Amino acid sequence: AVNQLCSHFEAYRDFQKITDLREKFKNIKQILKSHVFSDFSSLGTGKETEEGNLLQQLSDACLVVDALEPSVREELVKTFCNRELTSYQQIFEGAELAKLDKTERRYAWIKRRLRTNEEIWKIFPSSWHVPYLLCIQFCKMT
């Protein structure tokens, strides 16, 4: 609703009060973004099994991200996928596992990762296609 209201007052951006309110709104969105990213930083560390409500909290945070700009969602998903693939890079970076005949181990790794983290994938809205984007990034990296 606030986004729609801001777009309605776009023609009046020359007025100081409108500019001040837009700046406050921009700061609030930045604070929300930093809080959401902070909350998501604990995802995948094992804390989600300790805190049952963390997954629900992160699922709700996805709604906040959707209310922000689309670039925030893209950045969050990209950051999450990069973090997920960090262990993949560490495992398969060595010369022995980097050979072509070890490709099946790489794909077994991603399939296992997708299966073991099914609970995590459920927190993201299906319209975000996070597992799909993770696989795309995995293929590019491979």
TrEMBL record:
Domain of life: Eukaryota
Any one Gene Ontology cellular component term annotated for this protein: cytosol
Native source species: Genlisea aurea
InterPro entries for this protein: Vps53, Vps53_N
UniProt cross-references to Pfam families, sorted A to Z: Vps53_N (PF04100)
Protein name per UniProt: Vps53 N-terminal domain-containing protein
Gene Ontology biological process terms, A to Z: retrograde transport, endosome to Golgi
All residue ranges annotated as the Vps53 N-terminal domain in the record: 1-142
